[in-house]
Specification:
Blueprint (H helix, E strand, L loop, with lengths): L8 E12 L6 E12 L3 E5 L6 H8 L7 E6 L2 E2 L5 H11 E5 L10 H11 L6 H10 L15 H13 L5 E5 L7 H18 L2 E5 L3 H4 L4 E6 L2 E7 L3 H30 L1
Parallel strand pairs: 3-8, 3-9, 6-7, 7-8
Antiparallel strand pairs: 1-2, 1-4, 4-5, 9-10
Length: 265
């Protein structure tokens, strides 16, 4: 992994809490989460369904404002920014890759890739765009439209679009969830290469131990709380930890049910 930024944090969350609803109906999505994502690192976030992993990603990316706590992204305290400043930061310094590719069907591959630059009023550097299209294996498909591409190729377009602004951080939410195994591995290798060669920070939510093994760290979350991390993961070590996490969640659920019942007696 890229070590050039080993002493710097691309993203830092401190005591982040996110709740929905009020008082007795309050749902705690994130509960006092403190963590950091080093520059040039590739981190996978894993946890059971409903554990808060997507909420954590959205809070870190400035898409969802925490109820309390601090999020520092690329040197900016997000709570200090107004909506316009936040939009500009997301546009210029953050790349997003989702399970759904979110491509515009009327635009060509090249037009979809350069769209963030055009929206920012920046003229695309044709040499840089060609370089990125080659990097994602789409150099010969630049004039095709999304409907003429496979799912894997469309996800490559989405990654190229995320890379074109040279973002500090790329947030990926289940980026390989709808892809076949072979294509998924190509996409994950591409994300890993972005961290290694360009020093970009990758933060990826996934449910797949194999996908997580492409990261250099896995962050586990359960019931909105951090539940440990794993360095240099393998599919086997991730799967084992997820199994333990399932038992932990079941145990906590039983305790909460017991406490709730005691409160009613």
């Amino acid at each position: 992994m890229n070590n050039s930024g080993e002493d710097t944090d691309a993203v830092r969350l401190t005591a982040v809490r996110k709740t929905y609803g009020r008082r007795q109906n309050e749902v705690v999505a994130l509960d006092n989460v403190t963590t950091r994502f080093r520059t040039g690192s590739f981190t996978a976030i894993m946890g059971p369904s409903g554990s808060g992993k997507s909420t954590l990603l959205q809070a870190a990316a400035g898409l969802d404002q925490p109820t309390s706590g601090s999020v520092l992204l690329d040197g900016h305290e997000l709570s200090d920014l107004d909506e316009t400043e936040l939009t500009m930061l997301r546009r210029d310094r953050i790349g997003f890759v989702f399970q759904s590719f979110n491509l515009l069907p009327v635009l060509t591959v090249q037009q979809n890739v350069t769209l963030p630059l055009r929206l920012a009023g920046r003229k695309p550097d044709s040499r840089r765009v060609s370089e990125i299209l080659s990097q994602v294996g789409l150099a010969k498909r630049h004039n095709n439209r999304p409907s003429e591409l496979s799912g894997g190729q469309q996800q490559r377009v989405a990654i190229a679009r995320a890379l074109v602004t040279d973002p500090a951080v790329i947030f990926a939410d289940e980026p390989t969830g709808s892809l076949d195994t072979h294509t998924a591995r190509d996409i994950l290798a591409l994300l890993r290469q972005s961290a290694v060669s360009a020093g970009q920070t990758i933060v990826m939510v996934t449910h797949d131990p194999v996908a997580a093994s492409y990261a250099d760290r896995v962050l586990f979350i359960a019931d909105g709380r951090l539940a440990g991390e794993l360095q240099s993961p393998t599919p086997e070590t991730v799967a084992e930890r997820m199994t333990q996490l399932g038992a932990y969640v079941d145990e906590r659920s039983a305790v909460n049910t017991e406490q709730s019942s005691a409160g009613r007696r």
